[in-house]
Amino acid sequence: MAAKNSGFTLIKLMAVTAIFGILLSVAFPVVRNYNIKAQTTEGVLLLSELRPE
Known about the structure:
By secondary structure, the chain is mainly alpha-helical. Helix content is 77%, strand content 0%. It is built from one helix and no strands.
């Protein structure tokens, strides 16, 4: 009886890894900028509390 070859080939795994890397390289700066904007907003709010009215 012949063995059934099931599974992923090396080419398929490399393609998925490349696609994942491209998506990650696009998403990382977006998330980083979101965090920077959130920290800036928080800093402005904290400083506005210190300002005398």
